[in-house]
Amino acid sequence: MNIQLVVDADGCPVKDEVVKVAKRLELSVIFVANRQMRIPNGPRCRLQVVAALFDAADDWIAENCNEKTVVVTGDIPLAARCVAVGAEVVSPHGRILDAESVGEALARRDLATHLRDLGLPTSGPSPFDHRDRSAFLQALDRVIQGVSRRLGRSGG
User: Fold this and answer.
1) Residue 47, beta-bridge partner list
2) Is pLDDT above 80 for 150?
3) What is the spatial distance between Cα 143 and Cα 146, in angstroms, rounded to a whole number?
4) pLDDT, tens digit, for every residue of 10-33?
């Protein structure tokens, strides 16, 4: 299986969960950040530090993913870029963002930004809790299984 996990590491609350899944399935994980940070230990885990520039981590991720990549990010514009090149995306809250759902997620994000710009109250992200971890693990397993089946059919 040549599936690779790529994690938008800055502020990611599910790093340990990603590594547990990667160890179980013998997958490699690249944590991408614009600064040095501790990452969970794993035999196939590495930290990719990019320049400390705005969107440098997002740019690296989008430029280095493909149909064999599962990206973990809560960043909707980054998710859209990854989906556009064939990657699968799972948010830390367990939401699967694919070609069908990422457009709606972008529209919702843009609407919330517009409302905030107008000074209207909007709800921020919900607090992260144990249900999110469980939802994330289920979604990540489901996405990896789907990519694995797809790659098996295409000889990848």
Assistant:
1) 31
2) yes
3) 5
4) 889 999 999 999 999 999 999 999
Q: Pick the range with the lowest mean pLDDT from 1-10, 15-24, 47-56, 122-131.
A: 122-131
**3-state DSSP of the chain:** CCCEEEEECCCCCCHHHHHHHHHHHCCEEEEEECCCCCCCCCCCEEEEECCCCCCHHHHHHHHCCCCCEEEECCCHHHHHHHHHCCCEEECCCCCEECCCCHHHHHHHHHHHHHHHHCCCCCCCCCCCCHHHHHHHHHHHHHHHHHHHHHHHHHCC
Query: Which amino acid is residue 53, in one-letter code?
Result: L
Strands 45-49 and 69-72: unpaired
Which residues, including other chains, have CB under 8 Å from residue 55's CB and lie 6 or more apart? none
Per-residue confidence (pLDDT) for residue 43, from 0 to 100: 86
CATH architecture of the domain with range 4-121+130-154: 3-Layer(aba) Sandwich (3.40)
Contact 61, 6 (CB under 8 A): yes
